[in-house]
Target: Gp37 protein
Amino acid sequence: MTDNIIIEALQKFLQERVANKIKLQTPAKNIDTYDLVHPAVHVGWIPPKLPENISPESQVTDIPCIIVGMDEGEDDGDSASLNIRLSFVTFSEGLVKDGKLYPNYEGYKDLINLIALARRELSAAAVIEDVTSIQRPFKWGMYKDQPAPYWYGWMTFSVACAVMGYISGLTEQYE
Model:
């Protein structure tokens, strides 16, 4: 339960302090359309598409996005931490001129800007939603294979979490 509270606090923080400060290109149905949106912030994974009878306005934008996930946790009895992995997805297919698409493969720039904004805001905050604290170092990068026009990157760091205390004699009563 504590882990979920921390992940949801990170989601809220990223929505308010990162996603609301940047607009990025979203995939469009029409090549002549260029829409900019705030990135969505998901927990765990990009949600599946809703059935076609649901209007697009009621669906959450799935890309661009930040995905908050947990790699692993550690509790030694004295301190505990969660290793957090943020995944970033941006979209950029290039430039459109006179109805023709000219791929430029520069979508990685939006990705790097989004990662840098997240790192800056997390560094400045230190404490997230009065729930947890950020533990350095931050590590980040881009995946080697980029399925353009989608661009993927990641950031990892740790956060403090509650220690699950050992109660002496608890297991012995079941022997």
User: Anything to note?
Assistant: The chain has two helices and ten strands.
